[in-house]
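Batch manifest line 268
LIGAND: NAP
JOB: complex structure
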Amino acid sequence: MEKVTLGIIGFGNMGEAIGRALNPSDFKKILVYDLDPKKLKKDRRFTKAKNSGDIINRSEVILLAIKPQNLSDFLKENKAALSFRKPLIVSILAGISTSIFEKYLKGGRIIRAMPNLPALVGEGFTFLSAGRDARRGDLEIVKRIFSKTGEVVVTEEKNMDRVTSITGSGPGYVFYFMDALYRSALNLGFPKLQARRIAIRVFLGSAKLAEASGKDFASLLKGVASPKGTTEAALKIFESQRVGYAIEKGVKGAKRRSEEISRGFKER
Ligand SMILES: NC(=O)c1ccc[n+]([C@@H]2O[C@H](COP(=O)([O-])OP(=O)(O)OC[C@H]3O[C@@H](n4cnc5c(N)ncnc54)[C@H](OP(=O)(O)O)[C@@H]3O)[C@@H](O)[C@H]2O)c1
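JOB STATUS: finished
ARTIFACT:
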């Protein structure tokens, strides 16, 4: 596949995670720009751009990794250059549909991606959906980029708010549970470092077992929770506190927020 120049606009948590997963020799160049100059540390793999206009003028593919609340200003500032240069835009912004870009820019090749933070260690899970004018080759380029950060799935745009609420935000839910496990270990008197190892190893080991066994989660649970045993005693308390229900409600809240961001943007 022909090499392209990739421009990353917004080099925060996600922009940097994706950038660092890539091999610069797969590209003509990787340009990066962030409003906050401190985020653009010296790194020979990336070329610092002067501003977003500079990136748009020099890149065939643009990875937009700014926050949704900054999009309006970004589009106002760069509408003319984007409409003129027509790069392939890959947006990872939660709650921003491809049609928002298409409407504002009067067309254009847009791909929406929803990655997640484990992309930092090559264990991400990214869903992609193509906008109206994106070509098959565009999707191939973007698949290639995100495959360096973990698993990639292509879906329809209508699924992206639910994807955001479960895989995009998902690591946050896991860290919440890990933190509760960590605090429980501290309460039991384990020293901090060991409590942290406990939380990490319990999650990592369980996830690996689930993947390797291919069993459903209810059967795996049965393997740990023997009748009248210790795990069952804890699970009974989780059930009485409706922990599982609270998680399901939380995920629905995240999906509503993704839909709200999208509506909020259209109404502005
Ligand atoms: N974090 C996640 O786990 C995750 C997962 C999936 C998707 N996402 C999506 O990824 C996007 C980025 O999230 P993040 O967590 O990486 O945010 P972040 O760490 O705040 O990074 C965004 C960066 O973009 C900069 N920025 C804002 N406007 C800009 C502009 N016009 N030109 C250049 N840089 C600009 C910000 O600078 P200032 O701080 O100075 O404003 C900030 O450094 C969001 O839209 C989010 O919905 C995040």
